[in-house]
Write a structure and sequence with these properties.
By secondary structure, this protein is mainly α. Helix content is 76%, strand content 1%. The two termini are 35 Å apart.
């Protein structure tokens, strides 16, 4: 590899680093700048961005946004809050697992963000150090995003692995879900006895006596009454998730034409758009609220980030694919964990599992042999889970 390779690599990394300082929109803009420099400045042939991954994310985010507009996410938050209050003494274990399950279902941390104050309140009332439950819950919920079948990270993995190796959604989840549950349990165990109990902590007792600490639960909250539309929206979305899991895992159920079976990414797009329409109709969602929710805005920025980053990295990697395979192909197959380390470091910079998958995973599947692809995928998911923590 000549000096030109390292100059262009520096440009790619610089665009990612500068854009990453401004979040998802910045990553997309930085990627666009990188593509412009590589193509117009160095004459590299532009590659195609990860269109399949972006289409899946758009459809899933659309369905979740409609569910949010129907009040379904607020309803899920209230359900989770009631369940958390049933076992206050076990909040350090219950909060991470329960919050993560709801995050797995939605593919977004919206539910988790809304529950953090509740976790702190329940823990304090049960005289459990709130930082134990909160720290474990924040980490577990972040990990759940990378393991959720409805998340952008999983959509990116599915789009890439299905295209290159025909790997199904079920195969991906057999790696992601066990990794998530083990991580959540180990995290809870690691903080279970961290710090003194509140009753034995002199600093905490001093603050209570001095009036410097007030328990969060000071008055009875008005009971939340979910609308019929919110409940119906959750049911419709759940049916859509189940259909995605079944059809994505058992691909023999899908139709085929000329020997080529309908792809799983297309199935996800169809099911999620259909679910969104039924939620709008059944829950009578006002059209003015569909594009104003936090989920829609965050999802749109994620799509922009994936567009720019995946386009730039694909252009760079495709230009030097023969050289990269020659130099790094043997390393990836003999020690796939090293590729996981690269993913970990890359994700630390851009702080986006979905953008990391779109940028790095195409290179991984190009370098890896079929024998080591499963191990490589496991290392990549482990790196993403660690980074989100």
């Amino acid at each position: 590899m000549d000096a030109l390779f390292f100059i262009q690599l520096f440009i790619v990394l610089a665009c990612i680093g500068i854009g990453g300082r401004y979040g998802g929109m910045g990553l997309g803009a930085g990627g666009g700048l990188g593509v412009a420099i590589l193509v117009l400045g160095f004459g590299l042939k532009p590659s195609a961005p990860s269109i399949t991954a972006m289409l899946i994310i758009i459809c899933v985010i659309g369905a979740v946004s409609v569910l949010q507009a129907a009040g379904g996410l607020d309803y899920l938050v209230r359900v989770a809050e009631k369940l958390l209050r049933k076992k206050p003494q076990a909040i350090t274990f219950v909060a991470p697992i329960l919050t993560s399950i709801f995050t797995l279902f939605c593919g977004t941390t919206y539910v988790a963000f809304s529950l953090y104050p509740v976790v702190a309140e329940v823990a304090a009332e049960a005289k459990v150090r709130p930082e134990r439950a909160l720290s474990a819950t924040v980490i577990a919920a972040s990990v759940a995003v990378a393991a959720s079948p409805m998340s952008a990270a999983t959509a990116g993995m599915l789009a890439i692995l299905h295209e290159y190796a025909g790997i199904s959604l079920g195969q991906i989840l057999t790696i992601a879900l066990p990794s998530f549950f083990m991580a959540a349990i180990v995290t809870s165990l690691s903080v279970y006895k961290r710090g003194k109990e509140l009753e034995d902590d002199p600093e905490f007792q001093r603050r209570v006596a001095a009036g410097e600490y007030e328990f969060m639960h000071t008055e009875q909250k008005k009971e939340f009454v979910a609308s019929a539309g919110a409940k119906k929206g959750v049911v419709i979305f759940a049916i859509g998730v189940v259909l995605v899991l079944i059809l994505g895992s058992f691909t023999e159920l899908l139709p085929s034409w000329d020997g080529k079976r309908l792809s799983t990414p297309m199935v996800i797009q169809m099911v999620m758009l259909t679910a969104a329409l039924f939620i709008m109709i059944v829950s009578k969602v006002p059209s003015s609220t569909l594009n104003s929710g936090s989920v829609f805005r965050a999802g749109l920025m994620g799509v922009v980030a994936i567009l720019g980053v995946s386009w730039m990295t694909a252009t760079f990697f495709d230009a030097y694919q023969p050289e990269l395979i020659k130099v790094f192909g043997g390393i990836v197959n003999d020690a796939p964990m090293l590729f996981g380390v690269v993913v970990f470091l890359f994700s630390l910079v851009i702080m986006s599992p979905a953008a990391t998958v779109a940028a790095i995973m195409p290179l991984g599947v190009t370098l890896a042999s079929p024998r080591s692809l499963a191990i490589l995928s496991t290392c990549v998911y482990s790196s993403l889970l660690i980074t989100t923590s």
